[in-house]
Amino acid sequence: MAASMELLCWGGDWDLPSVHTESLIVLAYAKFAGAKLTVKPVDWTWRTITAVIPQLNYECSSVTEPTQILNFLRKNRFNADYELSAKQGADTMAYIALLEEKLQPALLHTFWVDAENYSSLTKPWFAAHSPFPLGFFVPGRLAGAALSRILLTKAEAPLHSITEVEGKIYSDAKECLNLLSHRLGTSLYFFGNAPTSLDAFVFGYLAPLHKASLPSGQLQQHLKQLHNLCHFCSTILQNYFTEAGSGRPHSNQDAVDANLQKLTQLVNKESNLIEKMDDNLRSSPQHRLNRAHRPAPKPSFQTAGRNSTPA
Amino acid sequence: MSLAAEAFVSQIAAAEPWPQNATLYQPLRGNQVLMLSSVPQAYLRMCGLPVRVCCRANAEYMSPSGKVPFIHVGNQVVSELGPIVQFTKAKGHSLSDGLDDVQRAEMKAYMELVNNMLLTAELYIQWCDDTTASEITRQRYSSPYSWPLNHILAYQKQWEVRRKMNAIGWAGKGLEQVYEDVSQCCQALSQRLGTQPFFFNKQPTELDALVFGHLFTILTTRLTTDELSERIKSCSNLLSFCRRIEQTYFEEDKDSQSAGSQYSRGPSLF
């Protein structure tokens, strides 16, 4: 390969090389197959609205869509699935279909349709990563595409609104996560000890859900309970994407800030607990006899307690 | 159906045994181009539950979710294979109880593959391919209605299907690409089936019913070209799988042909 392959994708954040599922799939597969890609993030360029992401440019041709890009890489002898038997190849197709049908609608909903997540996380991120006037259009366009995809594929004729479909897609997604967890079991990757295209797809779908700080994430809570899947994501990040994590000092600072915040929250919880214990103690039977002697200290302690909480 | 309603229906369903007069409704034979009545029928026969088949022109509108075919059992109406499986499970008949977790995961994955690939390809070929749509699909879909309703309904359905194809990214695919995808799907199924009689051990499961239903429908329906059925026939073990299931579970249909004419004679692989 004399000429290099160039990949257009969304930029990274939250310890991930990219926040966009499909870009992550391609990036992960390229690492697994040993393909050298020049990664060009489209952030802050006009390609946020003109290009279809992800897009692989090689010589004069360009390929879009993760499945097509993976086929293209395979044809050019970057094949991470070489060791798989035919049956395992069939299983790969089946599991990818499962991910697309059951997990993707709920992921799209979590990031793009759920009002709290969209307004506090997704929209600001994508608006901030687009050049000036496009920041008003890009998130809205992506959100509209996500909503229409969910409605057209999941909402049947009488159920045209999103609320009736929500329950179903989340329960399907949770079931899908459980099935993936059963299939992965205790092994490192889905097929033996080397990652394959299925691992790339699962990583692409799960990593943003695992790493993003979502204000309302019932699906994220569910994922966090499936330890083998979380371990799977962290392993891939550690083994294949460490240079992306270490080359950004901001993430360290963010980690420190996050720790400080956690510590503060813990201290506040502790002081609330102490206050409650004290209240219980004071209202307990032994103290009731003494209460008549000391009515004054209680209110002042409570006001002192209230002042200490917003620390 | 919302989750609470589903749970409620399951509870009611569990209360009564399977009645004798359960009915499966499907559109008129000449009407729909590719009918999938075989899927729930095959599943119910595999469970050993009796069901009558009834053809109605307005089956699509009677169905609670708009999908045909659907079953009418006791006081409940259930459509689509997923809810039907749950419904029969609530009544105590299940085909996939013997599977462990990993196998169940595989079964669900393969069912999604069939839904994702085969069903979407069928819809694409019927409605997005111009020749098929104009010569066959629109005619058949609109046949029970008079002018101008037939045109309106046919075009409305076509518009809906094309919109859906757009949303999932199939609109840009050419017909060749779709045939290629179907071949790959059939090869994957063929690999999984191997030389076994059914997909999982010796017992049929809902995956077998689903695969049989789709393949049978594709093989027995006439379209502008035979390309699709040729691709399936190239996987010989899938073809013998379909024949075997038809022989095992649909044999009694042929016996009762002479008995009554309420069982409409369906197509056959033989």
UniProtKB/TrEMBL annotation, chain B:
Gene Ontology biological-process annotations: mitochondrion organization; protein transport
CC terms in the record's Gene Ontology section: SAM complex
Keywords: Acetylation, Membrane, Mitochondrion, Mitochondrion outer membrane, Protein transport, Transport
Annotated SUPFAM superfamilies: GST C-terminal domain-like
Statement: the UniProt record of this protein carries the keyword ATP-binding: no
Localization in the cell: Mitochondrion outer membrane
Main location: mitochondrion
Keyword Transport: yes
Start and end residues of each Metaxin glutathione S-transferase domain: 183-245
Domain called Mitochondrial outer membrane transport complex Sam37/metaxin N-terminal: residue spans: 41-158
Role according to the record: Involved in transport of proteins into the mitochondrion.
Oligomer and partners: Interacts with MTX1/metaxin-1. Associates with the mitochondrial contact site and cristae organizing system (MICOS) complex, composed of at least MICOS10/MIC10, CHCHD3/MIC19, CHCHD6/MIC25, APOOL/MIC27, IMMT/MIC60, APOO/MIC23/MIC26 and QIL1/MIC13. This complex was also known under the names MINOS or MitOS complex. The MICOS complex associates with mitochondrial outer membrane proteins SAMM50, MTX1 and MTX2 (together described as components of the mitochondrial outer membrane sorting assembly machinery (SAM) complex) and DNAJC11, mitochondrial inner membrane protein TMEM11 and with HSPA9.
Sequence similarity: Belongs to the metaxin family.
Name assigned to this protein: Metaxin-2
